[in-house]
Amino acid sequence: MANNLKLSKKHGVNPSLQVCTICGHDDGIAMFGYITGDKEAPRRTLSPEPCKKCKADIENYKKQGFVIFVINDEFENEEMAHTTPWQHFKYLTVVKREAEFIQDWDTSKGACFLQASRATKMGLDQFVES
Ligand SMILES: [Zn+2]
Predict the structure, then answer these.
(1) Separation of 38 CA from ligand 1 center, angstroms?
(2) Which residues surround ligand 1, an ion (CB under 5 A)?
(3) Is 74 helix (H, G, I), strand (E, B) or coil?
(4) Do residues 57 and 107 both lie within one domain?
């Protein structure tokens, strides 16, 4: 967050409750200050990255395989340049490191983001409730 927060004349620091993009739990407060048109900040906003608990879960998933974070395609739009991929998170899946379709991917970080349209083409969005 920028250190030089421009205050809103109507709403002051203009706070918003941040929620984790993965689990949806409260994860701190964002201060928007002045927003174009001196609008009030939304009551809730998506955190730019997962909460501590989800980060710990992700590290555990990495021990089980390669983690794929599926994100909305809209993240590629230029007007989304101020957002993080986490704010476009849809779901995650863990695949075996030996899975053929990831063999030419850079798996050195144990995880990657993948656009939802590509995930759909690969059949990664087919869920079965158990
Ligand atoms: Zn979380």
Answers:
(1) 30
(2) 20, 22-23, 51, 54
(3) helix
(4) yes
Q: Are residues 41 and 78 in the same domain?
A: no
Q: Report the number of distinct structural domains present in the chain.
A: 2
- Does residue 115 surpass a pLDDT of 60? yes
Q: Retrieve residue 42's tokens.
A: 């939304």
Question: Separation of 83 CA from ligand 1 center, angstroms?
Answer: 18
- Convert the pLDDT of each residue in 17-69 to its tens digit: 999 999 999 999 999 999 999 999 999 999 999 999 999 999 999 999 999 99
| 43 φ, ψ (degrees, to nearest 5) | -60, -40
Q: Tell whether 74 and 41 lie within a shared domain.
A: no
Report pTM. 0.83
103-126 burial code (b ≥16 CB/10 A, e <16): eeeebeeebeebbbeebeeeebee
